[in-house]
């Protein structure tokens, strides 16, 4: 159940069952994820939190279908994930916009692939660019935008394709602190409307507490689930509320132990 | 403005050296044709129609040879970039043949294809193919995997990935490879026409040597320079038009 119990139309459930992933490095097999079992509810925003190199991006890449698990299963609404697909939208840290397309064409990319008529594509692009506040930049090319604007385009592009799940891999990690907070507020605002299933990878505890219905803390490498926090805060959150700070410090204590362990 | 001045300066330097030499005769004036002599040769060649014909013949050979090579390089480049077994099969062959200076094979082309058009076109195609193939393949293989992932997550099929992501992403590199190939075509046309051609700018130059007419040799060389600059300007304009997104910032 998401904290609000609301699931947007067409949002799906993700199940991870006993996931194990190892990479072979110089002929040796190095584990990255060990025995991760987790269920992401429809309409829930779940944050994966952990020190760098803990395997949180690996986990996300498995759900995206870019990597296959070594053992265990990853399912969307009961169907195993075998590769990338349009029902799982991805927002990358480095935006990854198509530089030869305009902002509007980037947002229309998914609907066009599905063969939607041009007029409908334009409408969709206009709607989602409006949502992220970039309507007047529709005709620009990505090189003409700031980092924050590019990431808004990437979010609009993911939403415009009507996915049932959105996977975000440290999407605000490359932005400056102020832009980052603005983007968090925008995402929170959009999520209050859309109620998508979102898996959000971050190493920022504040960001996780601000956005998440649940925060999954991973151990340092190899990644296992250390603890799961349900954030019982109102949807519109105040970063200075005492309860907010309580969650923040509680999770910080836990993560500190892991960071220390990673440096041993 | 500076470009124009530089060109004028070059012309003036040429004039100063050649007319100076005529006055003091450091060497025989016949060896250092003046701008006036070259212009006179160009005008007389233009009058009797051979200048236009030579340019047309050479350009025709360049376009045909370059065109064939470009199509072959694109098709093979795509095959090699998309299909790993093709890469393993084709690359060693190409890497073996590529370092051989193409001119070493020119007599072979004459033996195979005779003195007519075919040998010239084939030779230009052969020469320009390798750098274009290597450039096109490299730019396709260098396409950022993240772009492909992003598109796949938006529902792109293999075909979409090629048509809507890999090709546009590789286009800047492909255009550079084509420009290189075209430059090279102008480079080697002369060699091809030195050997048994009855027309073309290379033939014009060779005639200048045979009949000891240095002004005609210089005329031919300048014509090729102008042809090359025009072609390059054209390709740069095409590049600007198709790749506007790179120029903005």
Give a short synopsis of this structure.
The complex is a heterodimer of chains A (264) and B (249). With 264 residues, chain A is an alpha/beta fold.
Description:
The complex is a heterodimer of chains A (264) and B (249). Chain A has 264 residues and is α/β, with parallel strands linked by helices. Chain A has two domains: 1-87 and 165-264, P-loop containing nucleotide triphosphate hydrolases (Rossmann fold); 99-162, no CATH class. In chain A, 36% of the residues lie in helices and 24% in strands. Chain A has helices at residues 56-64, 103-113, 118-131, 147-160, 177-194, 205-211, 242-262, and strands at 14-25, 28-40, 45-49, 71-76, 79-80, 88-91, 165-169, 197-202, 214-218, 225-230. In chain A, the strands form two sheets. Chain A has a six-stranded mixed sheet, with helices on both faces. A four-stranded antiparallel sheet of chain A has the order 2-1-4-5, with helices on one face. Chain A is globular, with a radius of gyration of 18 Å. Chain B is mostly helical and 249 residues long. Chain B has one domain: MetI-like fold (Orthogonal Bundle). In chain B, 82% of the residues lie in helices and 0% in strands. In chain B, α3 (50-82) packs parallel to α6 and α8 packs parallel to α9 (201-210). Chain B is elongated, with a radius of gyration of 23 Å.
């Amino acid at each position: 159940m998401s904290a609000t119990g609301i699931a947007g139309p067409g949002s799906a459930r993700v199940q991870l069952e006993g996931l194990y992933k190892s990479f072979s490095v110089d002929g040796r097999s190095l584990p990255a994820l060990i025995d991760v079992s987790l269920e992401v509810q429809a309409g829930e925003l779940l944050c994966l939190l952990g020190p760098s190199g803990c395997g949180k991006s690996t986990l996300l890449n498995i759900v995206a279908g870019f990597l296959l698990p070594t053992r265990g299963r990853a399912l969307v609404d009961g169907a195993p994930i075998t590769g990338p697909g349009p029902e799982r939208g991805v927002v990358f840290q480095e935006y990854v916009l198509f530089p030869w397309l305009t902002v509007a064409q980037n947002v229309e990319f998914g609907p066009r692939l599905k063969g939607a008529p041009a007029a409908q594509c334009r409408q969709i692009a206009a709607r989602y660019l409006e949502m992220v506040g970039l309507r007047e930049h529709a005709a620009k090319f990505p090189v003409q935008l700031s980092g924050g604007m590019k990431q808004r385009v990437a979010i609009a592009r993911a939403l415009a394709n009507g996915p049932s799940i959105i996977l975000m891999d440290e999407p605000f990690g490359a932005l400056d602190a102020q832009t980052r907070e603005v983007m968090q507020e925008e995402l929170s605002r959009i999520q209050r409307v859309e109620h998508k299933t979102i898996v959000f990878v971050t190493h920022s505890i504040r960001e996780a507490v601000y956005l998440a219905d649940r925060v999954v803390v991973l151990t340092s490498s190899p990644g296992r689930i250390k603890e799961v926090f349900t954030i019982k805060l109102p949807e519109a959150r105040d970063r200075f509320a005492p309860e907010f700070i309580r969650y923040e410090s509680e999770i910080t204590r836990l993560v500190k132990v892991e960071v220390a362990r990673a440096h041993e | 403005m500076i470009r124009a001045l530089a060109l004028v300066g070059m012309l003036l330097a040429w004039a100063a050296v050649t007319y100076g030499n005529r006055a003091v005769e450091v060497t025989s004036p016949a060896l250092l044709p003046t701008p006036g002599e070259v212009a006179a040769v160009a005008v007389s060649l233009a009058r009797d129609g051979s200048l236009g014909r030579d340019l047309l013949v050479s350009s025709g050979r360049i376009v045909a040879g370059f065109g064939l090579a470009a199509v072959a390089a694109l098709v093979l480049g795509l095959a090699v970039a998309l299909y790993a077994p093709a890469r393993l099969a084709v690359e060693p062959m190409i890497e073996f043949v590529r370092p051989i200076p193409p001119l070493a094979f020119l007599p072979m082309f004459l033996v195979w294809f005779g003195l007519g058009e075919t040998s010239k076109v084939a030779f230009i195609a052969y020469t320009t193919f390798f750098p274009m193939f290597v450039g096109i393949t490299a730019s396709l293989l260098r396409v950022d995997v993240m772009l492909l992932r992003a598109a796949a997550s938006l529902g792109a099929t293999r075909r979409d990935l090629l048509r809507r992501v890999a090709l546009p992403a590789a286009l800047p590199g492909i255009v550079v490879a084509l420009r290189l190939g075209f430059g090279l075509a102008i480079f080697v046309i002369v060699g091809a026409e030195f050997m048994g051609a009855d027309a073309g700018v290379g033939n014009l130059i060779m005639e200048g040597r045979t009949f000891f007419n240095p002004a005609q040799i210089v005329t031919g060389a300048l014509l090729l320079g102008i042809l090359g600059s025009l072609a390059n300007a054209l390709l740069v304009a095409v590049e600007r038009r198709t790749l506007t997104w790179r120029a903005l910032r």
